[in-house]
C-alpha cells in the first residue's frame, strides 16, 4: 500500500481507522513482524453476535436509472431475545469494519439492553465486512462510487423501516442509534437526517467537527495527554526530533537509527522514522486506558504514563544517543509490551486491506480531516497542512478529489449548525485526540455533551471494574437520556 | 406526449404541475385551441426579477467519481437592494418551472422583504427553466438521472453557502426558506434536512404527505369544495357519468357528445371525455379564488360557485340531453369564461414540453401520489388506484420504476415523522384539493399549521383587496413566526 506511512495527513485518518476498527488493527499489528501476541479474546457478548441476517439494499439510493437499481446484500445482526410489544430498537450504525467485531465489543449496549427489553441490531456499513456491493470487485471505479456516508445512512434507514414493518411487535417501536468514532458520527447524523426514524442517538468519541476544527487540535490533545502524565515528557519528545534529523543526515546515521530502534529494514530517510514514531504517540494516546488492553497492541494500564516514564528516566539532552534510546524505550511500550517482537517495520508492506482501501477512499472523498503541528505548543515537529499534497495522493490512488466543503454543507461544522437538533448525546474522553473534533459542550437542553475525565478513545464502550467514576456517570446520563427519549415516544403514541 | 390524459393517476400529478407552474399552464392552455386569452399581465414585482445570476453546481452531489464531477450553471435571481449587515435571506426553493415566473408571482415575499431588510433569492430547480444540466440533452438517460429532490436540495444548500461566503454582510445572516406546492415541499424539506443552513421555512400548499394519504382524499376535497358552494352540485355531477357512459356505447352517441361539448375532434371513447371533465373539476377547485384570475385560464371570482350554478340551473335528471348540456355549461366556466374559444381538445396534441417531461420523470421516480375515487362520497366515478398500471406507464416512458417507499423513508409521511422538527409553518387552503396531503394541524409549539378558510391552492401568495380575513390572519402568523426565527438566530450569534 504505497501511500501508507507516506503521507502525514492521510496517516492520521488511518490512525482513526485503526483504532476504531479491530480488524484494521490487525493490519497495523502485521507490521510488528515478530509479534506473536494473541488476538483479543472473544468478548462475553460473542454468543449474541453469531447469526448474521441480510437485507437486500439498492446500491444507489440517489439515482433512479434502472442500471443503478441493482441490489446487494447488507449484513446485520439482530438479537431479539428481549423483544416485547413496542420494544425499543437499539440500532448500532456500523463503522468501517466487520460488524461482528463491533457487536462483540460494544458491551454498553448489551449491558443495558435487557433493562429496556430492547431489540439489538448491529448494521454493517456497506463496503466493509461481508457487505460488499460488488464482492471482490467493489473497490474499483465505478463500483466504489456508492461508498458514501449518505448511501450508508440510507441503507440504515431502509433497514429500520424493514425491521418495523416485518415484526408486528416493533411497528411503533422507538429507535435509538448508537455508534462510536465514525460509527458515532453516523449515529448522530442518522438522528439529524432521519428524525422520522430515529428517536435519539448516543454518539461516542464522534469527531463530527474534525472537518472544520483547527488543524493543530488533534496533536495538541496528544500533547496534553502526555503532559498530564508527565509534565516533562512533551519537551523531551520535542527535543528528540532534531537529534533524529542529525542522525538522518548521513547513511551512517540512518544505519545507527535502524539499530537503535530495532528496525527490520534499513531506513530511507529520517522522515520515515519520525512519521512512524509520531503515529505511535497518537495511537498510544488513543488507547490510554486505565487498565491493561489488547486492542491495537498488548498494552499496560495507562500506557502514556509508562511510555513517558521510560522516556524521561534516562533522558540526557547532552547525549544524543541517550535521547534516542530513551525514545526507543518509550515507544517500545506500545510496540512490544510483551517483549516478543524481534524487530519492527516502519512501513507496512502488507498488500491493500479491503477495509483500509474503503476507508482511504472515504478520506479521499467526504472525510478530509486537516492535520498539522506547530512544534511549539505541541510536542511534534512543525508540519503545515498541505491540502494540495493530500489531494494529489487521493488523485493518484482513486483518480478523484475530495469535496472537503460537502460535509460542512451537508452535516454542519459548529455548534451553531446543530443548535436545532435534539435527543443527542455526544460523549468524549478529554484525553482522546479525536475529542478535538468532538462536541464538548451542551448545545441545548436536548443536545448534551458528556466529558469523560481521563478518558481516551472509546473508553466506556464496555464496563470494566477499573472504570473511573467519570465513565460511570457518563453511562448513567446516557441511560437516563435513552429512557426519556423512549418514554416521550411512547407517550406520543398514546396521544394519537 | 402519449401518456398525457391517458392515465388518470399520472394526470393528477400533472394537474399539480400545471397549477403550480405558469409556463406549464401555457401547455394546458394550448389545448384550448381557439383561446386567444392574453397571458397573465406582468406582476408589479417583475422589475425585481429581471437579472439572472448563475452558480456553478456539481451535477451529482452524491457521487465522487470524477466523471460525475461535471458542473452545470444553475440560475438564480438575487435582489439585495435592502441588504444590511445580517440581513435575513429569504430563499425561495424553486419549483418545477422557470424561476422568473415564481419570482414575479410570489408577491408575499416581495411585500414583506423591505420590512425585514431582507435579501431575496429565487433559486431555479435543476432541469427546469434555464437550469438544464445537459442543455437540450438533459431529458434522456443517463443525463436525466440527476433530477431528484435530493440533488435539488443539495444545489440550494451550496447556493446558500455561496451567498453567505461571498457577501460579507450575509456571513451570519439567518435564512428563511419559502415555497409553494412542490416548492413548498422543498422549502419544508430544506429546513428539515439542512437546519444547519435554514432557520425556518414557510411551506404554502405543500402536500408533503400526499405519498401516504388515503388515495380518495384529493377528490374528496374537490367534492367538498363543490358541495360547499352548492349542496346539490356533487350529486348532479355524480349522476352525469352514467349518462356519458350511455352515450359512449355507440358511435352515434360519441358523435353527439362531441357536438354537445364543442370538441374539435371526434372522441375515441367516453373515458376520454370523462377524464377531461374530471380534470376540469379538479383544476377549478384549485383556482377557486375569491377574485377574478387569469392563472390556468381566465376565470371569474369563485369559479366553483359559478360552475355549480350553471350545472344546477337547468339540470333535469329525467332528460339525458339536459344533463349533458348542464355539465357543458358548468365546465364552460373554466374553458371559456371570456367566450372566445370555438372548440376544445380533450387531449393535448402539443409536443413534449421540457418542464412536463421533467415533472413526469419526478412522478415516475420519487413522487407517486396515489389517487382514487369511490363514486359514493365523492362526485366522481369509482376508480381504484392501480399502481401496476402507473408503474407500467413510467417504465414505458423512462425505463424506470418509482420507488414509492423512498420519500416516506427519506422525508416521512405523518405528523409522528415530523414531530422533532421546528420552525416550520404549513399553510393550506381548506378548499385546496392538495390540502389532502398537507399538514393541517399543529405538530408542536414550533411547527404550526395555518388553515386558510375558503382558500384554494396557493391563495395568499400575493395580497389582493378581496383577500378574506383568513388570508390576512395567515400572513400575520407567518410574519410573526419569521420574525421570531430571525430574532432567535441573531440572539444566538450574540451568545458566541
Automatic annotation (TrEMBL), chains A, B:
Cellular component, GO, one term: lysosome
Entry's Gene Ontology BP terms: negative regulation of systemic arterial blood pressure; proteolysis; regulation of blood vessel endothelial cell migration
One Gene Ontology molecular-function label: serine-type carboxypeptidase activity
Keyword Hydrolase annotated: yes
EC number from the UniProt entry: 3.4.16.2
Reaction catalysis annotation: Cleavage of a -Pro-|-Xaa bond to release a C-terminal amino acid
Top EC class of this enzyme: hydrolase
Compartments, record wording: Lysosome
Top-rank lineage group of the source organism: Eukaryota
Entry keywords, A to Z: Carboxypeptidase, Disulfide bond, Glycoprotein, Hydrolase, Lysosome, Protease, Signal, Zymogen
Principal location: other
Role this protein plays: Cleaves C-terminal amino acids linked to proline in peptides such as angiotensin II, III and des-Arg9-bradykinin. This cleavage occurs at acidic pH, but enzymatic activity is retained with some substrates at neutral pH.
Assembly behavior: Homodimer.
Cross-referenced PANTHER family: LYSOSOMAL PRO-X CARBOXYPEPTIDASE, PROTEASE S28 PRO-X CARBOXYPEPTIDASE-RELATED
Family: Belongs to the peptidase S28 family.
Record protein name field: Lysosomal Pro-X carboxypeptidase
Source organism (scientific name): Brachionus plicatilis
